[in-house]
Amino acid sequence: QTLTGRFFRCLFAAIFYSQLILISALVIFLTLRGLLFTKSPNFHPKKWYTPLLSSVALSGLLSLSWQCLFLCNIAATAKATIILAPLLTFSVGIFFVTYGKIVVPGIGGLLILFSFAQAIHSWLFVTRRRREFTFTITALSTSVLPPRTRVIAVVSSILSVLYSAFLAAGIGGATATRKGLVDILFISLIVISLAWTMQVLKNVQVVAVSKAAYAHFANYDVINACDALCTTLRSQLGSVCIGSTLVPVFVVIRGMIRTINRGGNGSDRTMYASHGDCAWVANHMVLVGNRYGFVHVGVHNKGFVQASRDAWQEFRRTVGLEELVDADLTSSICFLSAFGIGAISALTAGIWEFNIHKDYFFQLTLYAFFIGYFVGRVSSAWLQACVMAYFVAYAANPEGANFDNTISERIARQNVEENKRLADNEVRQPEEEQEITYM
Fold it and tell me: How is it placed in the membrane, per its record (predicted)?
């Protein structure tokens, strides 16, 4: 650990604790000012808080229910998530377009377009073979959960619900006063704080559970997930905060590059091997920040950037493993499940508020969606952590006794498919050139 790395880890940890304290003070101030010292004739606390807080509680129940369903039947729950998430997003968009005014229908239109993007993503990337492989890896990685994993998952979900309800009180207090741009700024700060805090809470869970799972896959050691969680909070929170800032940005950019590459009849392997501008950016961003770095943060107590680099370079040591890991659908399934939970929460709060007080239905729908999405992400962190630990442990020692031939067979099939695709492209190109010549 370099001096610069220690400085940034301490800096980000200090920033995280400081924003928690400042946001808490701001929420208390806004709540007291808006509900006790300022009386607005247009704001009715019962009509505003009841739908929103009910949707927050519903998001927690849905998240816990999704975990239970996933443990009971991985394949059916994942398939239902892939199908329902675009439909629920489409429903929220239609709700905005139908009942909204001014800019609200435009936002509804964007949600409708995003629902089609989700469906297209499923059609392009979620092939049958990839689904079956993801289900197999998920079953293998969660077959033996580290002790106390379920306790951490449930407690984290409850904490996310309670924290979200606390911040919702501050948003309501700022809404009650109607002070213009100042209160809009306060609400924006609260929403940004909610997003980052939820990301940190999710990734703290990822580091702790993946550390315990890695110990099992690597050498059959048994580590209590709660002990790993205490270690993470005590000495690795700064690295988690850095990763929570970098990974969401890099995931969006690399996802766009992969989509463009796939639209140009390319593949992930050609993107990794290419030296073009976009491919260069994608190849270097994945070394600076990727979610698998959280495993090395927990296991080896590294800084996040170095952990990301080491984890991904281990994947590159085995031909085809990098493409296989990057194509894993676990993160997509967790994202879609959280999006679906957010959409259900949004519809619950929006329809309820629209029937009792139409002035605030759009704002409450958005708040409920954001809160539901992040609660869903926190609740599924343990699942993603187990899968990540399985891949990283395999990359470190593919011959380990805990691993069967599932990954090696999938890599071999992947190589055959890639060679076939390249051969088809070589045949197609001379045919196109011949047609141009005779024209």
Answer: Multi-pass membrane protein
Structure tokens at 34: 């808006």
Mean pLDDT of all residues belonging to the chain: 84
User: Residue 41 above 80 pLDDT?
Assistant: no
**How confident is the model over 168-212, as pLDDT tens digits?**
999 988 888 766 788 889 999 999 999 999 999 999 999 999 999
